[in-house]
Specification:
With 407 residues, the chain is α/β, with parallel strands linked by helices. It folds into three domains: 67 residues, Winged helix-like DNA-binding domain superfamily/Winged helix DNA-binding domain (Arc Repressor Mutant, subunit A), CATH 1.10.10; 134 residues, 2-Layer Sandwich (Nucleotidyltransferase, domain 5); 166 residues, ATPase, nucleotide binding domain (Nucleotidyltransferase, domain 5), CATH 3.30.420.40. 42% of the residues lie in helices and 19% in strands. The longest helix has 25 residues. It starts with 5 loop residues before the first helix and ends with a helix.
C-alpha cells in the first residue's frame, strides 16, 4: 500500500475540499481512503489556520447531522500584476474571484528597471494596507503582453514583443519577494484569460475551450485536456497571425501577408473605413469618430459601407476561429474584447462564419461571450498563485475524480 506523509495528506484534503466542498469529514475519509482520525486532525488544523470553514450540516443515513467543510474562499487572497509598455494594473483578489482592490496607472515607459520595480512595489504595498483577516498566498506577475496598438516601427518586433522582460526576473521579482516575504511567480499572459474563464467565467466546467480576444488584435487563450497551453516559448495562441487571406498582398507588421489581424482587428477596421471615407465613399459615419460605438450605430442604421467592412472583418476572424475549432475540437468558444461593442450585427456575422467553416463532426460546441475586463490578465495571475498555493497541479487526480463523478 502506498505510504502517505502528512504533507501529502494535507494538500490532498485541501484539494478535495476545494473540488467537492461542502463535504463532511466522513465523506473526505471515504473519498481519500485516509483514516477518519487523520482526516479529523488535518481538518482541525485547516480550520485553525483559516484555510477551511464549517458551513452548516447535512443529514447522514443514520440520522446524525454531519458538519460540512468548505475552503475559505473569502479569507484567502493573492495579488495579480499585469504590465504593458505604458501601464500597469494591480489587483487584490480573493479565492472566490472577488476583486477587492484594483488600480491601473501609467508606469513610465522610460523609467529604469530599479525605478520601475520600486514604483510597482509601492503600489502593491498600498494595495495591501489594512487587509487583516485575509491570508495572502503570493504575488503573481503576468508577462508583459504584446499589443499591436503599441507597435513602433523604430523597434524590432522582438524588442517590442517583450516576453518576460529581463527586469521582471532580475529586479522586480526579487524586490517584491524581499519586501513582502511572499512567494512571487511569473506566468505567460497567453494562458491567463482561459484560467479566469474556467475558474470564474463563461468556461466553468469545461476542460476543452478557446478564449478569443477581439480588440486591438486577435488572440487566443487555449485550454485543452484540462491544461492551459502556453507553448514551448510562451507564445501559443497567436491567432491573429494565422494566414487566412493570402491574396490580399498587404503586409502585416509581423512581416507576413494575409494575417487575420490585417482585416479583423478594430484598428485595421477603423483604418479601412477612414480610407474609404477619404476616397469619397458614402456613409453616415464621421471620419473623426470611428469608435466601436459609432460603428455600431451605423450598423444598426443599415449603413452599407460599415456593413461591408464589418462583414469582411467577421468573415476573416470567423475563418481563423473555425480553423482553431477544427484543429482543437473544443466544446466552447468564448469571445471577449471591445469589438463585441459592435453589437448583434457583428456577432451574428461572426457566429455564422465560425459555424459555416467548422467540420460537422466538430459541431458540438457553444459560442459564448464574456465581458472584456481590464482585470482579466492580473486576476489570472492571482488565480495561478492560488493554484500554486494549493499545489493543485500536483493533485490533478482530485479534479479527475470530480470529472468522473459528474459523468
Amino acid at each position: 500500500m502506498m505510504s502517505f506523509n502528512r504533507e501529502f495528506r494535507r494538500y490532498a484534503l485541501l484539494n478535495l475540499i476545494q473540488a467537492f466542498g461542502p463535504i463532511s469529514r466522513t465523506q473526505l475519509a471515504d473519498v481519500s481512503g485516509f483514516r477518519p482520525a487523520t482526516v479529523g486532525e488535518i481538518a482541525k488544523a485547516l480550520l485553525d489556520e483559516g484555510l477551511a470553514v464549517e458551513t452548516g450540516f447535512a443529514s447522514a443515513a443514520t440520522g446524525r447531522r454531519r458538519t460540512m467543510l468548505e475552503l475559505n474562499r473569502t479569507g484567502i487572497g493573492a495579488v495579480g500584476i499585469a504590465i504593458t509598455r505604458t501601464h500597469a494594473t494591480t489587483v487584490l483578489a480573493r479565492l472566490d474571484g472577488t476583486i477587492l482592490r484594483e488600480e491601473t496607472w501609467q508606469r513610465g515607459a522610460d523609467a529604469s528597471r530599479e525605478t520601475l520595480s520600486a514604483r510597482i512595489a509601492d503600489r502593491v504595498a498600498a494595495l495591501l494596507e489594512n487587509v487583516d483577516g485575509l491570508r495572502l498566498v503570493g504575488i503573481g506577475i503576468a508577462e508583459p503582453p504584446y499589443d499591436p496598438a503599441d507597435y513602433r516601427k523604430d523597434d524590432s518586433l522582438t524588442v517590442n514583443y517583450g516576453h518576460f522582460n529581463d527586469w521582471i526576473h532580475l529586479s522586480l521579482r526579487p524586490m517584491l519577494e524581499a519586501r513582502f516575504d511572499l512567494p512571487v511567480r511569473t506566468f505567460s499572459a497567453v494562458t491567463l484569460p482561459a484560467l479566469v474563464e474556467r475558474q470564474y467565467g463563461a468556461a466553468r466546467g469545461s476542460d476543452n475551450f478557446i478564449c478569443v480576444e477581439l480588440s486591438n488584435g486577435v488572440g487566443a487563450s487555449i485550454f485543452a485536456g484540462g491544461v492551459a497551453l502556453s507553448g514551448a516559448h510562451g507564445t501559443a495562441g497567436e491567432l491573429g497571425h494565422t494566414v487566412v487571406d493570402i491574396g490580399s498582398g498587404a503586409a502585416c507588421y509581423c512581416g507576413k501577408t494575409g494575417c487575420v489581424e490585417l482585416g479583423a482587428s478594430f484598428p485595421e477596421l477603423a483604418r479601412a473605413l477612414a480610407t474609404a471615407i477619404a476616397r469619397g465613399a458614402h456613409t453616415k459615419l464621421s471620419p473623426e469618430d470611428i469608435t466601436p460605438e459609432a460603428v455600431r450605430k451605423a450598423l444598426d442604421d443599415g449603413d452599407p459601407l460599415c456593413r461591408a467592412y464589418v462583414d469582411r472583418a467577421a468573415m476573416l476572424a470567423g475563418t481563423a476561429i473555425a480553423n482553431a475549432v477544427n484543429l482543437l475540437n473544443p466544446d466552447r468558444v468564448v469571445l471577449y474584447g471591445y469589438m463585441l461593442a459592435l453589437g448583434d450585427y457583428y456577432l451574428d456575422r461572426l457566429r455564422e462564419a465560425i459555424r459555416h467553416q467548422t467540420l460537422e463532426i466538430s459541431g458540438g460546441y457553444e459560442i459564448v461571450t464574456s465581458p472584456a475586463l481590464e482585470s482579466k490578465i492580473p486576476l489570472g495571475a492571482a488565480v495561478e498563485m492560488f493554484t500554486h498555493f494549493l499545489r493543485s497541479d500536483e493533485y490533478r487526480w482530485v479534479y479527475d475524480m470530480m470529472g468522473e463523478s459528474e459523468k
